[in-house]
Amino acid sequence: MTEVPTAGVGARQFLPIDISGVDPERLILWLGEMLLIREFESRLDGLSMSGKIPGGLHLSIGQEAVAVGIAAGIQPQDLLACSHRSHHHALAKGLAPRSLMAELFGKATGCRGGRGGSMHLADASVGFLGGNGIVGAGLGIAMGASLASKMRGMDQVGVGLFGDGGANTGRTWEFVNIASVWKLPLIIVCENNMYAVETPSERLTGGGSVSRRAEGFGLPVHTVDGQDVVSMYRATTAARDRAARGDGPTFIEARTYRYEGHSTGQIINYRTTEEVDEWRSTRDPIQRLRIALQAAGRLDDEVFDEMVLRARATVQDAVAFADESPLPDPISATRDVTGLELGLGNAR
Amino acid sequence: MTPVTYSQAFQQGMREEMQRNDSIFVLGTDLLDRGGHFGQVLGLGKEFGAERIRDMPISEAAMVAAGVGAALNGMRPVVDLNFIDFSFGAMDEIVNQAAKMRYMFGTPIPLVIRGTSGVALYAAQHNNSLESVFAHMPGLLVATPSTPADTKGLLKSALRGEDPVIFMMHKKLSGTRGEVGGDEDLVQFGRAAIRRGGSDVTIVGYSQIVFKAMEAAKTLAESGIEAEVIDLRTVMPLDIETVAESVRKTGRLVAVTEEPLFGSIASEVAASIQENVFDWLSAPVVRVGAKHAPIAHSPTLFEAVLPQAADIDRAARDLVARGQ
């Protein structure tokens, strides 16, 4: 287990990450994906506040490496289900930015035609089983999906994510227990961003450690620096290998941090700006990978700047697409509630 | 054909469908060796093995979540909760996950959740009537069979459909016997059955209360009142058309349920009939259901809460008298 410091003052210098042994081309790709998520998410607060997006959103700015590292460590056919904070996972798993943005706008061209929204994104074609508005529920979906993978003899692994908040709901551990006793091909990830909405999780977590709880179920546990995409990738790869061998689930606790509030448009007075600055200026996952690639002579400022611009252009295109897309037909609101006709006047 | 019990009918339906479709499997407690607390999968453990008759810890949320996730990924799970009362431990998985996945994510959830329901012994916490609770949630179907034939036939439809189905089997019917259909005799959801023809008054119910309605029909007939008794068989979808057709003939309706009356299936039937068939009614629609109290331990107490055949009889007589 790697011990990851959670706070502290120290020199304002990014913590180094170890990129040895990883194909630099892949690293550049991951950097691009993290930039896309960052740029995508950075637009949403304004779009929500201006009313373009109905309702608030749970932003994942700061948590990009968790999603990108996991997606890099699994295979395209693998299935992932996560929590209400889901945009980064959706994008990393391959959901198209246009489709995601249009869904947030509530448009007909969104991945769920405006039925799902931010917390209920899904795209079966890329193995994204969905976000979930209910804390802890995504892990259960992934657990069940991995049971099917196993019963059907498929080379397919499930990934179920929950947060530090979800670590304190009982059913999470029902799911972990089943996965453990049935040796399911499942990667269980606690994406620990340290705050259950606005309450520091250390004040709420008996025993003090989510990882130690998982150890009690006999699972191998990786406590990982979630701000280091390469560490996330390595832990995920190890977990996938184990699952694919039929040895059962692995538990990963990703220690991460969200820079924004729990939801958009919130005033934050439950943590200090110093704490946020500390994370941003010493552990930012994008900057750490950028510095590591630069030090290895694989990236220069010019290329990095181009990558940022490219990500920004992709997001701009997605916003324009969403903006211009048609709204869903109101009559479709009662369509396809069930497979069977109910005789309640629902449109078919 | 030899008559089988209500529980055996379920077990037969399971066996035939499991033989027919490899993706069907059962999850729940005490299934593999014991065959379930009501013998509902007795013998299937030996035949299909521990992979497909899967014993689980007493973790209701995990049972249903496993079912939902597996259904999302190509399987057809049957989650056996033993008692439907235990669904409270999995309510989010049933109502917020299983029911809404198709709508939210566009993926069908072919999942059957079986639970023994209705009122019998063992007091308040094992005798909840939840049919209107589940029927109220868009995305769920609710089967409430009263006979072995319907149990088998509805189960077959559920296992060949693509929706999450709450399959409620009444405790008091576990040992009742009847003939059942064969391999391809499916009972469609949303098709009520007329158990007894009559022209004076319609009595509609589902599950075990249908037998009390039949008892009432018998005593009514002794007084020359011919009641038509309708068994809804499933409460979602609810075959209101068959009820309406009967009411157009009789002009009178007694809607019965074993649930507490407030917000019950009987209330839904009553409201729907007065909205749609008002002009044919000779008297107001009357509901007969349980009084608003939890179920007590002592039979003297809980029988006082439940609707009895005599209550149905009285309600029907009053209607006939009023509508003269």
Count of distinct structural domains of chain A: 1
Arithmetic mean of pLDDT of chain B:
96
Determine the strand fraction of chain A and express it as a percent band: 5-15%
Overall structural domain count of chain B? 2
Q: In this structure, how is the largest beta sheet of chain B organized? A: 7 strands, mixed
Compute the number of helices of chain A: 11
For the record, what is the CATH homologous superfamily label of the largest domain in chain B? Thiamin diphosphate (ThDP)-binding fold, Pyr/PP domains
* Residue windows where pLDDT falls under 50 for at least 5 positions of chain B: none
Q: Please identify which CATH superfamily of chain A we are dealing with.
A: Thiamin diphosphate (ThDP)-binding fold, Pyr/PP domains
Largest interface: A-B, 43 and 46 residues
Assembly type of the chains comes to heterodimer
Task: Indicate the topology.
The complex is a heterodimer of chains A (348) and B (324).
Chain A: H1 24-49, H2 64-73, E1 79-81, H3 87-93, H4 97-104, E2 128-130, H5 137-151, E3 158-163, H6 170-181, E4 186-192, E5 195-196, E6 199-200, H7 210-215, E7 221-225, H8 229-245, E8 250-255, H9 273-283, H10 285-295, H11 301-324
Parallel strand pairs in A: 1-2, 1-3, 3-4, 4-8, 7-8
Antiparallel strand pairs in A: 5-6
Chain B: E1 4-5, H1 6-20, E2 24-28, H2 44-52, E3 53-55, H3 60-72, E4 76-83, H4 91-105, E5 112-117, H5 131-135, E6 141-143, H6 148-160, E7 165-170, E8 177-178, E9 193-196, E10 201-205, H7 209-222, E11 227-231, E12 234-236, H8 240-250, E13 253-260, H9 265-276, E14 286-290, H10 299-305, H11 309-322
Parallel strand pairs in B: 2-3, 2-4, 4-5, 5-7, 6-7, 10-11, 10-13, 13-14
Antiparallel strand pairs in B: 1-8, 6-12, 9-11
Helix pairs in contact in B: 1-6, 3-4, 7-11, 8-9
